[in-house]
Amino acid sequence: MEKDQYFMSIAIEEAKKAELMKEVPIGALIVKNNQILAKAHNLRETSQNSLAHAEIIAINEACKEIGSWRLEDATLYVTLEPCPMCAGAIIMSRIKKVVYGASDPKGGCAGTLMNLLQEDRFNHKADVIKGVLAEDCGEMLTSFFRQIRNSKKR
Q: Which residues are catalytic?
């Protein structure tokens, strides 16, 4: 668990980069053999691209890093539970394990709304560990959206 907290703290640092850019503060990284293959944060607003979630960017970069679309034996660390799109990308890239911080009651597909990552009908499943540094991850998101709401009241 200590290792998971260490890598999640790096994902939180990535999320903070997104927040500085006025992006939803979500960070992700992909680790294999205790080595970071890729780090990413949300860029959806900056790029005006609905696919620019932290997980998708990290998967793309990790594939480039190893020269393969198969990320077998890799672990994805992400500050917020993956959405349906990201869960699909995780399955398709063969990521072995997903560790996430905060649950997503509106879009979480790693156990909250549904669990696409462990769906028996798919040919690949990922192990899931939830709630790693969940309070830190959740507070960052809560604070971000609170600031947005308050700025709209002015």
A: 55
